[in-house]
Amino acid sequence: MLFRQLEYLVALSRERHFARAAQACHVSQPALSEAVRKLEEELDVPLVRRGRTYEGLTPEGERIVLRAQRILADRDALRSEVTALRSGLSGRLRIGAVPTASGAVAQLTGPFCAAHPLATVEVRADLQSEDVLRHLRNFEIDAGITYLHQDLPEEFRSVPLYDERYVLLVDAADGLSPGASATWAEASRLPLCLLTEAMQGRRILDESFAGAGSRPSPRVETDSVAALFAHVRTGRWASIVPHTWLHVFGVPHGMRAVPMTEPDRAVPVGLVVAAREPGSVMARALTEVARRTDVAAALERLPEA
Fold first, then answer.
1. Is the N-terminal amide bond of 111 cis, ω within 30° of 0?
2. Helix, strand, or coil (residue 102)
3. Alpha-carbon dihedral of residues 264, 266, 267, 270, nearest 10 degrees?
4. In the chain, N or C terminus with fewer CB closer than 10 Å?
5. For position 251, what pLDDT does the model report?
6. What are the DSSP calls for 200-241, one per residue?
7. What integer pLDDT is reported at residue 305 of this predicted model?
8. Which residues does 182 contact at the CB level (< 8 Å), separation at least 6?
9. C-alpha distances in angstroms, 51 versus 19, 22, 55?
């Protein structure tokens, strides 16, 4: 049995298509198919349900993929550990984050790269909270930044980074007095542009609206925080965004950021890594950076105009 065969099987499970799996592994489709077939012969069990097209993995194949993912992750961790002992940490750190946490990611990648100049970083900032945990389970990322829940499974460890609060972006001429706040009930009556209902960030907003006995009726929905700001800049829309995004974008020209109250919401966001040992050397290095970085204080600072 070769690592290459396990890599091909994992790619096939991920891509669910022989040609795409072969492309992802930079081999021909016949080479990948033959390697998987030989793996089936060595294990004496069918791994793939074959018809005229790929039909999925057998139940045995699904179990073998889980083992293969762990074996490949341990191989990569061993290589990284040896390289770090010899010449310092190198390789690629893979981070997955929910879109609203992108500002926090930037507060960690800088000190991480400064501490480990031979390492590079890949950030996926378009994941839903459940996707972050799934990618961690499947060894597809080294660390995630997402909302922290009390029911976080025991297979993960977390480092709290900051509490996400919310602000209403409104036109500067709305007549609110300086230092004013807005209630969730008041915000529900505005022409809103919000995140889509499938996103955890939106579900948190809906819970806050429900707590105020109201329900929003957004005219525009998007899966991009950047798109929210783009709509707010037109002056036609209001939006509710995490306060941390003011650190990234500032307050759009002609708009005001008004704290949301009644109810007050503060949702913890943190770094999440797998609890398995010895685990990813990249995850351990990022965890050390997170523990010594005051992300919350950094995100309170607004960019200069």
1. no
2. helix
3. 170
4. C
5. 83
6. HHHHHHHHHHHHTT-----SEEES-HHHHHHHHHTTS-BEEE
7. 45
8. 168, 170, 176, 258, 259, 260, 261
9. 15, 18, 6
Q: How far apart are CA 169 and CA 16, in angstroms?
A: 43
Low-confidence ranges of the chain (pLDDT < 50): 305
User: Minimal CA–CA distance to 190: which of 242, 227, 152, 231?
Assistant: 231
Q: Is 284 helix (H, G, I), strand (E, B) or coil?
A: helix
| Spatial distance between the Cα atoms of 258 and 299, rounded to a whole number of angstroms | 17
Q: Are 65 and 10 in contact (CB under 8 A)?
A: yes
Alpha-carbon Rg for the chain in angstroms: 23
Residue type, 200: Q
Residue 85: predicted pLDDT: 65
> Based on the number of CB atoms within 10 Å of its own CB, is 108 exposed (0-12), middle (13-18) or buried (19 or more)?
buried
Taking the alpha carbons of 240, 241, 242, 248 in that order, is the dihedral positive or negative?
negative
Contact between residue 196 and residue 221 where contact means Cβ atoms under 8 Å apart: yes
CA 242, 248, 253, 258: dihedral to nearest 10 degrees? Answer: 20
Question: Residues with Cβ < 8 Å from 97, sequence gap 6 or more?
Answer: 104, 105, 123, 124, 125, 127, 132, 144, 145, 146
Phi, psi of 213 (to 5 degrees): 75, 25
Alpha helices in the chain (DSSP H): 3-15, 18-25, 29-43, 59-87, 102-115, 129-137, 184-187, 200-211, 225-233, 244-249, 281-292, 295-300
- State how far the Cα of 261 lies from the Cα of 21, in Å rounded to an integer: 50
Q: Are 157 and 288 in contact (CB under 8 A)?
A: no
Q: Cα torsion at 104, 156, 159, 135 (round to 10°)?
A: -10
pLDDT, tens digit (0-9, with 9 covering 90-100), for 105-143: 999 999 999 999 989 999 998 888 889 999 998 888 999
Residue 166 and residue 137 in contact, taking contact as beta carbons nearer than 8 Å: no
Token reading at 188: 């529900």
